[in-house]
Amino acid sequence: MNLEETLKCIGPLDEEAMKISRKRWDSIAKPLYSLGKLESLLVQIAGITGSQEIDLSKKALVPMCADNGVVAEGVTQTGQEVTAIVAENFLTCETSAAIMCKNAGADIFPVDIGVAVDTNIINRKIAYGTKNMAVEPAMTREEAIRGLETGIAMVKELKDKGYKIIATGEMGIGNTTTSSAVAAVLLGQPAEAVTGKGAGLTSAGLEKKIATIKKAIALHKPDREDPIDVLAKVGGFDIAGIAGMFLGGAAYHVPVVIDGFISAVSALLACRLAPLAKGYMISSHVSKEPAAHMILEALDQSPCLHCDMCLGEGTGAVALFPVLEMAAAVYQGMSTFSDIEIEEYKPLS
Ligand SMILES: O=C(O)c1ccc[n+]([C@@H]2O[C@H](COP(=O)([O-])O)[C@@H](O)[C@H]2O)c1
Ligand SMILES: Cc1cc2nc[nH]c2cc1C
Question: Distance, CA 82 to ligand 1 centroid (Å)?
């Protein structure tokens, strides 16, 4: 489906499936709501898929990999060449996220959506990196739409292969600069309120990063009411791809997991394009990037993992997989009040 068709078919969660799922939790022999967010996450998954039967047997991580022209402004601690190296290392299990996937029984599908050189990962390249947003728009509007559609198509492809839940991830030197710029515009916040040190910037580097974001926003005046304009002028191909995955999840009824700062900003962008997509996003952790909590609040998300992680790649999203599987094991296998012949709790009013 193209972007327009995708946006049109995003509707509310399945209330009936959620009601049955909630009833199942309430019948399990334990104090009501005592598994907290583990319960509400599975109820949400039932609402997303339209079935109270929770199947997490096939899990995937899709790290969207791309370069950012704004790196030329000196806003990062490491050079652009790191993007391609780490992107290819997903395939050889030499990234943190790949090892976590192996441990969690998840498959990994790294996508080159805009790395500055040719790579051996899944080729969905829109361009060899974005333009430097401090000088010109990062990409054209048409490229932004193609990026969103790339994410939508990835979800469809993985659903057709039988994947039941998909974690988002990314790799792209400079992508905390683009993410902060997108967040500043969408939230109407000054750059300093939404910008952190990314992958280990110095304090002097942080000042330069904030100044660069301010310059790009002043130069292009992205239209806050037009998320595609914001994405095209100050975003990145990775953000486009991930935002597309959230839209695809909502349209194809597949739970898609939010990872760290970049992923959460992409989720916010997707929500601005399709407000109902919010219900289809599964939150995992709160990144240590200072504005992460602000973005998650804007998304009404209350993640269950607080681990001070800020690695990206999808590490936080994949860390949620074993937690969800444990919750599903209780949901599916635990005795009910009637099984063990004790009186059921009356649901709280
Ligand atoms: O996901 C996060 O919360 C996160 C926070 C800080 C850094 N990162 C990772 O670090 C890279 C971007 O950092 P930077 O400083 O180059 O913009 C990119 O590859 C991300 O995966 C990720
Ligand atoms: C080595 C390295 C690995 C990463 N993974 C995500 N962002 C990263 C940034 C660097 C520098």
Answer: 12
